[in-house]
Every structure is written in C-alpha cells, then in structure tokens.
Amino acid sequence: MKCKAAVAWGPGQPLKIEEVDVQDPQAGEVLVRMVATGVCHTDAFTLSGDDPEGVFPAILGHEGAGVVEAVGEGVTTLKPGDHVIPLYTAECGECKFCKSGKTNLCSAVRETQGKGLMPDGTSRFSIDGQPIFHYMGTSTFSEYSVVPEIALAKIQVDAPLEKVCLLGCGITTGIGAVLNTAKVEEGATVAVFGLGGIGLSVLQGARMAGAARIIAIDINEAKFEMARQFGATDCVNPKDFDAPIQQVIVDMTDGGVDYSFECIGNVQLMRSALECCHKGWGESIVIGVAGAGQEISTRPFQLVTGRVWKGSAFGGVKGRSQLPGYVEDYMNGKIEIDPFVTHTMGLEDINEAFELMHKGESIRTVILF
Ligand code: NAD
Ligand code: AHE
Ligand code: ZN
Asked: Could you say which residues form the signal peptide (predicted)?
C-alpha cells in the first residue's frame, strides 16, 4: 500500500512529506494505522545527527497510538480494529531480560531495531524501490507503520488516541522513572532538571509518590507555571545564581535531595544532578539522552559517600503488560495528559512541531493523521 509519511533524508534537514510504499506485515508483524503521534525531544536528537544509532533516510516518531489494520502470519494477540500503542521497548516475555524480573529492557528485537530494520533485517518502507529505515521499531510519523507484535500494547478502545499517544514515551517515562526506577517515598525531597514533557511527568510522578518538596529547575522560566501546576514547590533558574546549581540545591535542602532526575540530556547537568543529592543515600536518575561521544564524570568520592547514579529507559515500564494500566489510570483521572498537549497539527506541518520544541514554546505537539 501507499501512504504519506514524514521522511528524514539526512541529519539536520527538515522532514519531507513523501508518498511511501508500505509492504504487508510479515510473520509476527502488524500493520498499524496511526491516529496520532507526539513529537519527543529524542526525535529531534536523532534528526540532529547526534544519535550514534541514527540512520537515514528514516521515518522517525515513537510516541504514537493507532488502530490495527492487518496482521501477519502467526500473530495471535492482536486483530484488526484493536487499539494499540507502539513500544520502542518491546516485551517478548521470553528473553533473558524479560525473564529476569529486573528490567523492562527486552532483547528480542533490539539489535535490528537499532539498525532501523525489522527483525528479519529488512525494511517495510520504500520510495521508488529505495528502502527507507524504520526508527525505534515504531516509525510513528507515517499514516501506516509496520511494528512487531511484541512491540504493541493493546489498550482499551474508549481511550482517546490523540491523548494517550503521549503514554508511548514522555509521560510514562517520567512517571515510571519516579515510581519504578527511583521508587520515591512519601515525604521525600526531589529535584527535577529540565521541565519539558519528561521533567513535568517526573513532577507528576513525584506528586503521586507523595514527595514533600519538589524542586523544579530550568533556564526557561516560562515552564515554571506548569511546573507548579504539576506539584513543584520551588522553581529555580540556575542563571539567577553565581554558584553552581548543585551547590544552590544543597544549600536549599540542608545537605541535598533524596532523589534527582536529569531530563535534559546535558552531561554537565547529569553531574549537577548527582552532586545535589544528599550524602549517604541520595539517588540521581539519568533520563536525558546525550549525543555521540559525550561522557559523564564526577569525583568517585561522590559515590563512595553513598550517592547512587542510575538510568531509566521508558520509566522501567514493561509495555505490553503495564502500559494498559497507565491508559486506565488516565481514564480514571489518576494520570494527567491533557495539559501536556500544548499544540496539535497535521503531518504536513510537522517541522513546525520541531521548531516549537526548539524555541521552548511547546510541551508536546500532537500530530493528528
Ligand atoms: P524538551 O525539549 O521538551 O525539554 C527539555 C527541557 O530542558 C526544556 O524545558 C529546556 O528549557 C530545559 N533545558 C535545556 N537546557 C537546560 C539547562 N542548561 N538548564 C536547565 N534546563 C535546561 O525535552 P523532553 O521531550 O522533555 O526530553 C528530555 C530529555 O529526555 C531528552 O534528552 C530526551 O531525549 C530524553 N528522553 C529520554 C527517555 C528515556 O526513556 N530515557 C524518554 C524520553 C525522552
Ligand atoms: N540511540 C541512542 C540512545 C537513545 C536512548 O537512550 N533512548 C532511550 C529512549 S529515548 C525515548 O525518547 C532508551 O529507551 N534507551 C534504551 C534503548 O534500548 O534504546 C544511543 O546513544 O545509541
Ligand atoms: Zn521519547
């Protein structure tokens, strides 16, 4: 079949709307008609050329929701008409990772996914015979996408896809990092670096966990109003201080926070986030994604004296088994999504969504197909 998709032809180039050929789903694969997709900073990161796994030409996008159009041979858990959220972290349930009970990372399709290919090593997208790469196993910037069965979460049909698409990445990542990775306790002190879709979701998670003090940090003060709505008790602009931001936070909190979260992708701030943690027990969670060649550093003494450095992918959430519960929590009012959708537009305007993000004017733009 043919459909419209936004194609990234090369690093740093605007996306181009193209008519692409989409091959039928093969064994274990599913054809999804995309209804909506968010635009996450990671899409911009890969488009910039900084992603070591970035390959071009590709169809980006990984925060989508849609409806099953057709299934390939052997697909048993999904049928046409089912509502689904594509998962960049699959859940096969059978690999060493899935069985470990220690991680949401699944190894079943991760290797080919990182190369922009389906599990059989080929692409389902092409233009005039030229293969176009997949992205994160999801490629949601396309009217139709082919996704492995094990990378689709089946969700309730009454959930609005133009909202719950954000559970495909940003909101789940932030809330999950608090509840699953850090396991923030009631009464804890928390610092959140970066107040985009991820940071604001961390705030939401911290409020759900009953954190007593939540310090929100950003250089764009326009983000502070929403941060307060999501539970921030203090908003801090590092530019207002001569001292390093970690020192500012330590001074504000009688020795440091119990938990910090880096939601920017800046290795200097990853260090700040670690070093603003309390001696003896403070834990810092890296969520932000940093470019090729960048590394984190700190004095080992920071760790020797009890601070813990951790990372979190998709909030530690196992997509097939746990994401339907997040959708349910949205439907019954436990998770907020609507205020995150600051802009909506059609696929033809997708480059504007990237501009709004870069200018710091959006939290999430949702593309409606
Ligand atoms: P975003 O662009 O919407 O938000 C980033 C925020 O950081 C903005 O508010 C910006 O003003 C702020 N910021 C930038 N530089 C700053 C600085 N020097 N000091 C303080 N604040 C600063 O991005 P997002 O979509 O929220 O994503 C945030 C990060 O999380 C990105 O690196 C993204 O790739 C990553 N991410 C990781 C996962 C994961 O599973 N680990 C999932 C989604 C996104
Ligand atoms: N490809 C990059 C890493 C990108 C990355 O860390 N991705 C996050 C999700 S960001 C979603 O917005 C993630 O889940 N990583 C775990 C995984 O398996 O990809 C690189 O550095 O090579
Ligand atoms: Zn994302």
From this structure: none
Check 18, 29, 37, 41 and give the catalytic one. Answer: 41
pTM, entire model = 0.98
Q: Are 245 and 238 in contact (CB under 8 A)?
A: yes
Residue 17, domain extent: 2-168+337-368
- Is there a contact between 172 and 315 (Cβ–Cβ < 8 Å)? yes
User: Would 155 be classed as within a structural domain?
Assistant: yes
One-letter amino acid of 66 = G
Please give the ipTM for the structure prediction: 0.99
320 to 89, 93, 179, 249, 334: CA distances (angstroms): 9, 9, 18, 38, 20
Rounded Cα–Cα distance for residues 46 and 158 (Å): 33
Q: Residue 306: which CATH number?
A: 3.40.50.720
Q: Is 37 within the bounds of a domain?
A: yes
User: Based on the domain organization, do 349 and 271 belong to the same domain?
Assistant: no
Q: Looking only at Cα atoms, what is the longest distance across the chain?
A: 63
Q: What is the pLDDT of residues 17-27, one digit of tens each?
A: 999 999 999 99
Identify whether 237 is part of a domain.
yes
| Distance from the alpha carbon of residue 115 to the mean position of ligand 1, in angstroms | 24
CA 216 to each of CA 9, 76, 164, 255, 345: distance values in angstroms, whole numbers, following the listed order: 37, 45, 25, 17, 29
